[in-house]
């Protein structure tokens, strides 16, 4: 494998380690801020923070207007990946996009000013660099600007594990139409919410806080960790408090994004007690639900559900966020109870340059999906 090469269109393709001291990190940050599809989990600050706990074997595929170390280099594409040599039990390698428990979105960063050149470079780069000519993009958007761009390029692709996750999107809605957004809630649901709120506030008024001041974020993370530790995850030994590397990662993320005003911690508080907490990185007017925890002492009060409800009300009232991606599995209550929009998601296998073995890879990945689905069905039946 070569570490850098000039592509036929004059752009440079390169593979680099995730090195926080690299001179092209500012260019990576700039690309993230104006990408065709924003993806906070692939942007520089977040990805570098995630490197230690989740980044084993990860490298960055870069397309730039010159060698990335050159002064003034501008990045047109960036995609963190690792090489999987035997995903299908055969010596047929594939480049795997980065995914982990805190990275639920897989759109590569493509220059918003010239996305066609950026995607063309990204698809040409692997073969030019001596890498496998097939990409697997986990949790990629299955519609919208990126999907349209892929289709326009005419590359062979296949989708696996398609699903939709809850999305709040009031972009372009008037304040009047926002007032009716929650009208879809049934009378039964409204009564249940009202009774739960009364139960939660029986010991005193509960307020919604949305924190974004850098100085408040570190303490908010401590409160979040303590809240989770008090629940079943803490008792089972799987809470954040037992995973110090993940706490350090979240602290680094909050520090980096907080310095740019790009993270919110939404929480319900009764005097000095935190009842529910959600960590929300932001990209412009869009927020992403990274982590949520709630007090489990009184399940009927449903503080986690009430947090999402009141956060939704705050957005509808003009809090400054227009979209929230639940980053949740299909039909998960967090994203489906209050939010009517859906974001189609799928794992995409994409041909990068002419690949005579792509049909084989496509068939093997479909078989892998069928086996995994059968195991899930069997597990569900045994637990029923």
Note the topology.
Elements: E1 4-6, E2 12-17, H1 25-33, H2 44-54, E3 59-64, E4 75-84, E5 94-97, E6 109-110, H3 115-129, E7 134-141, H4 145-153, E8 157-169, H5 175-178, H6 187-200, E9 207-211, H7 214-229, H8 232-236, H9 244-258, E10 263-270, E11 273-283, E12 286-288, E13 291-294, H10 303-316, E14 323-325, H11 333-336, E15 341-351, H12 358-383
Helix pairs in contact: 2-9, 7-9
Summary keywords:
globular; Aminopeptidase; 15-stranded mixed beta sheet; 12 helices; 37% helix; single chain
Describe, in plain words, how this protein is organized in 3D.
The protein has 384 residues and is an alpha+beta fold. It folds into two domains: 201 residues, Aminopeptidase; 150 residues, Aminopeptidase. It is 37% helix and 25% strand. It has a 15-stranded mixed sheet that branches. The chain is globular and about 70 Å long. The termini are far apart. The model has no long low-confidence stretch (mean pLDDT 94).
Outline of this structure?
37% of the residues lie in helices and 25% in strands.
């Amino acid at each position: 494998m070569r570490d850098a090469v000039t592509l036929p269109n004059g752009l440079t393709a390169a593979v680099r380690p995730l090195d926080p001291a690299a001179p092209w990190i500012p260019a990576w940050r700039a690309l993230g801020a104006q990408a065709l599809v924003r993806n906070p989990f692939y942007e520089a600050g977040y990805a570098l923070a995630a490197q230690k706990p989740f980044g084993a074997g990860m490298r960055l595929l870069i397309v730039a207007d010159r060698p990335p170390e050159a002064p003034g280099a501008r990045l047109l594409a960036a995609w963190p990946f690792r090489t999987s040599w035997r995903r299908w039990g055969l010596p047929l390698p594939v480049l795997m996009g980065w995914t982990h428990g805190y990275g639920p979105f897989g759109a590569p960063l493509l220059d918003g000013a010239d996305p066609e050149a950026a995607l063309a470079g990204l698809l040409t780069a692997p073969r030019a660099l001596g890498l496998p000519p097939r990409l697997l993009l986990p949790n990629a958007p299955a519609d919208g600007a990126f999907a349209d761009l892929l289709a326009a390029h005419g590359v062979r692709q296949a989708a696996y594990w398609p699903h939709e996750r809850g999305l709040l999107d009031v972009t372009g809605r008037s304040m009047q139409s926002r007032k009716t957004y929650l009208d879809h809630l049934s009378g039964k649901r409204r009564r249940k919410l009202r009774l739960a709120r009364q139960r939660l506030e029986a010991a005193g008024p509960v307020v919604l806080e949305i924190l974004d001041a850098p100085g408040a974020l570190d303490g908010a993370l401590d409160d979040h960790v303590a809240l989770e530790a008090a629940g079943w995850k803490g008792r089972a030994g799987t809470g954040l408090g037992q995973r110090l590397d993940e706490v350090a990662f979240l602290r680094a993320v909050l520090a980096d994004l907080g310095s740019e005003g790009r993270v919110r911690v939404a929480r319900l508080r009764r005097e000095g007690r935190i009842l529910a907490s959600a960590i929300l990185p932001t990209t412009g007017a869009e927020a992403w639900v990274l982590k949520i925890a709630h007090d489990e002492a009184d399940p009927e009060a449903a503080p986690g559900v009430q947090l999402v409800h009141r956060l939704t009300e705050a957005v509808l009232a003009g809090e400054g966020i227009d979209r929230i991606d639940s980053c949740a599995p299909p039909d998960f209550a967090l994203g489906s109870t209050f939010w009517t929009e859906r974001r189609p998601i799928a794992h995409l296998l994409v041909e990068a340059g002419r690949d005579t073995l792509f049909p084989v890879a496509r068939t093997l990945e479909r078989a892998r999906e069928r086996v995994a689905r059968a195991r899930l069905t069997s597990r569900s039946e045994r637990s029923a």
